[in-house]
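Q: Hi! First time asking for a complex rather than a single chain. Here are the components, and I think there are two in total. Is that enough to go on?
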Amino acid sequence: MTVLSFTDGTSEEHERMDGVDVVRVNPYVMRYPDFISWIEGLNMLMVERGASLGSFDLIHVHDWLTAYSGIALKHIWRRPLVATIHATELGRRKVLTNNSERHVHEMEWWLTYEAWKVICCSRYMMNEVHSNFWCPTDKISVIYNGYDPKMVKTRSAGQTRKDGKTVLFVGRLVYEKGPHLLIEAASLLKERDLRVIIVGEGAMRPYLEGLARKLDVSKKVTFMGRVNDETLLSIYEEASVLVIPSLYEPFGIVALEAMSLGVPVIVSNTGGLDEIVRDEHEGLKFQTGSSEALAKAIARILDDEGLRKRLIGNARIRAKEFAWETTTDQTFDVYRKVLEEYNSNNWKPKAD
Amino acid sequence: MHISWEYPPWVVGGLSQELKSILPELAKKVRTILVVRGDRDEVAEIDGMRLFKSASSIKCSPHILAYIHALNVDLVRGASTAIHEEGEVPVVHTHDWVSCLAGVYLKTCFGAPLVTSVYTTELTRSKALDSLLNMGIFDIERHCFRKSDLVVVKSHEMQVHLIEDFGLDKEKIAYARNADDLISAYRRLQG
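A: Yes, that's all I need. Here is the structure of the assembled complex.
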């Protein structure tokens, strides 16, 4: 197993990690006018570097970001291509407004067209890939993501410090993650003794800080920025509830982390979250985009200890169904199936 | 194997006419495969050459640099089909930066010596590198020309330009104005 990836010069160009050869190329040997051409330059160097790495049975690429090199190497080597689509441009943006966005969208289509099999991390994403790219559903395998149980095991032995009023958000501060909805919900719960902790960074942070001031809840909202795992675990211990108010969420690993750590979750009823969490069973769901519905769910979960205990118990059991080992086994099953079909097919390199 | 983004009737600019004047003559003397961007994927014959047309898989790009990267993946599709179906080729010959990326891929993956004809460069077209787009194209040109085993020009001025502005060795540059010159250049490359 060789992983071809990127370096900005601060990491090794070749190292062995966890039994995997990691080979990195540095795209900063050239200049680029924008992100798309930067990605294309990276892919160009990946093809050149890939040629020197020997032969492989199968190529697996992730999203449009490595589609160019995957498609090129597929045809050069005549080896099968597998693609994982983690998210789509249309899903992120809802509408394609310029040629950069349309280029990314078309690259995603091209990748699903060229791939022997497409892997998606939820049924939601399978439907999105099918409807956005007319990719046949029998070409798509749904393989759920997992979470790292080591994170739970390494949790500090100290008692939880839950105060019954701390609401946590963990994620990038971008529109699709919906952090603004939590601040709006906090303002609707202004009369309550509430504390909101926001972990993560992103372009939206200045806007969110301004929104908290405008809605007069800035004293209740703390922006932690990016934190290390140890700090994050400590914050989880304080949290009475984790809120995932995403507007677009192909999977939602953070829900599994909270569920395994005994923190009740409130999630929007969209994407992978809708499949991980059953409403009233492993967590509470609210209508995507509604800060009013979110505020009601927060108040309900903070006020009802019985509900919290029931959700936490069910969520711990549910989280165990999502392990990276399962993801790995199912991915290898896809590889095996693809190679079986490939081996009984005439599409082979000339030398074969 | 010649790789181009245009050849009549698929015309973008002057390059197609340039190739139309040389490649049929070349094909009379050596077996020639032409890989070109076309309206659809197709294998055919044209002017005595085996033709592998590759359609552009995507239509929208924010600028020419983004488009050319994607186009060259399509050209690689056609060229790879040609090599796997028709056998390896002794030389891959590309024309300007617009098809040279595909040539570099084929050289690194199949080991075929790479010849690149340079008619214009970003510097001769734009006069100055005054935007990141110009610089990005120039950097791609420099990368590809340096990866080429032989660079073919038609004028002394272009030879000087490639030496001074791209740092190419004089020995790596050959003059070629017709099919016979090209065959001499190929022989020189193969020792």
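A: The mean pLDDT of chain A is 94. Let me know if you'd like any chain examined more closely.
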